[in-house]
Amino acid sequence: MKNLLIIGAGGVSRVATVKCAMNSDTFSKITLASRTKSKCDEIAAFIKERLGVQIETAQIDADDSDAVIELIKKTGAQILLNVALPYQDLSLMDACIKARIHYIDTANYEHPDLAKFEYKEQWARNEKFKEAEILGLLGSGFDPGVTNVFCAYAQQNLFDEIHYIDILDCNAGDHGYAFATNFNPEINLREVSAKGRYWENGKWIETEPMEIKMEWDYPEIGVKDSYLLYHEELESLVKNIKGLKRIRFFMTFGQSYLTHMKCLENVGMLGIKPVMHQGREIIPIEFLKTLLPDPASLGPRTKGYTNIGCVIRGIKDGKDKQIYIYNVCNHEECYKETGAQAVSYTTGVPAMIGTKLIAKGIWQGKGVFNMEEFDAKPFMDELNSQGLPWKIIEMTPNLGE
Ligand code: NDP
């Protein structure tokens, strides 16, 4: 049994906290802390009513490492789950190093003033994590997260060599708004409006935003336009999947979403640099976030399914082989169970599973790790029992042709 501190109280946190409370044989005590304590209290009340489990709540500024260390001491936490924003990753990792407790997150570090994400600064803390004899698990969401585990499972159990991977992320949910983002709008729009990038034959190849499009037939959903994006799991998978020739990431977008985004971009609303407005500085994308629906409010309105998975081609026993491994999730079912829609659900459940495997000592190590560096099997088993069952389809090999 481990004492857990969860930081952040948005949609992902809500699901992760509910799921941790549902696994209270693993977590002896749960404290939920965020910038706005009332959001923690609302989640705690939901959990108390639904599950009869009492969790503690606290106010915290996660950018302030010293305050986080104080909170860790006060709560006696042994593990910290970071489901705040990517901007807080480094200050929270540093707090964990000083307090010598395990660290888990779901998204890699981004500097607030640079629309760019990479693992460099988090990987650079590897030695400090080793010295403190603690484990840092990076990217325990769905993508990154489950997609890394799918690839690791394929490498460890289904293939002798893996040559091609396409990660395919489809959200076919309908929330009824003309334009809204399914998770933090600032993080989401920064990701989607950036240049695309994929890796082939040892080199990164850059594309214009949304330059490469394909149609893909998603099981249980149907054919959707899917656009090549750069996504953070590509950086670690290129390092950890041996023999790889190409890896790409695709996400579905409807035409209305793209038209809105292009328009907002053209008028400067996606800008991350301050502009003067009536004598005071504002950051356009932050102002836009204020105008857009709170992703947490989409829960009760969203209908339909998500499908996220990996198409993997390689060699097994001397033969060419291709599989499609994926999960399908229903927005309304997720809302019924946790009060949040499927994008939060598909992230929050794996955040809990990564935390659980560390709490139980099933995933062990000293240093900073990506998901694919561990035995995938226990994680895959937990996905099936915690609400994200997966399927594998054998396909006629054609990826890379
Ligand atoms: P939200 O914006 O809904 O929630 C973020 C929460 O973090 C809010 O409660 C917010 O505070 C809190 N927070 C922000 N800054 C601070 C701070 N300085 N100190 C304390 N708390 C702070 O985001 P989501 O729940 O949608 O996303 C959470 C994380 O999950 C993000 O890092 C996102 O990138 C990641 N993600 C990962 C995915 C994956 O598949 N790997 C997919 C989707 C999201 P406040 O309480 O004031 O609102």
Total number of strands = 18
Rounded average pLDDT: 95
Shape: globular
Intertermini distance:
50 Å
Number of individual domains: 2
Oligomer: single chain
Helix content: 25-40%
- Tell me the fraction of residues in β-strands, as a range: 25-35%
Write the layout of secondary structure elements.
Elements lengths: L1 E6 L3 H12 L4 E8 L2 H15 L4 E4 L5 H11 L3 E4 L6 H11 L2 E4 L14 H4 L2 H6 L3 E4 L7 H13 L2 E11 L13 H8 L3 E5 L2 E5 L5 E6 L3 E7 L4 H8 L5 E7 L2 H12 L8 E3 L2 E3 L1 H8 L13 E12 L2 E12 H8 L3 H18 L7 E4 L5 H11 L3 E6 L6
Parallel strand pairs: 1-2, 1-4, 2-3, 4-5, 5-6, 6-17, 7-12
Antiparallel strand pairs: 7-15, 8-9, 8-12, 10-11, 11-12, 13-14, 15-16, 16-18
Helix pairs in contact: 1-2, 1-13, 3-4, 7-14, 13-14
NADPH dihydro-nicotinamide-adenine-dinucleotide phosphate binds next to helix 1 and helix 13.
Explained architecture:
This protein is of the alpha/beta class and 401 residues long. It folds into 2 domains: 2-137, 3-Layer(aba) Sandwich (Rossmann fold), CATH 3.40.50.720; 146-340 and 389-395, Dihydrodipicolinate Reductase, domain 2. 36% of the residues lie in helices and 28% in strands. It has 14 helices and 18 strands. The strands form 3 sheets. Strands 7, 8, 9, 10, 11, 12, 15, 16 and 18 form a 9-stranded mixed beta sheet that branches. Helix 13 crosses helix 14 (376-386). The termini are far apart. Bound molecules: NADPH dihydro-nicotinamide-adenine-dinucleotide phosphate (NDP). NADPH dihydro-nicotinamide-adenine-dinucleotide phosphate is lined by residues 8-13, 34-36, 39, 60-63, 83-86, 88, 106-107, 139, 141-145, 183-184, 187, 295-296, 343, 347.
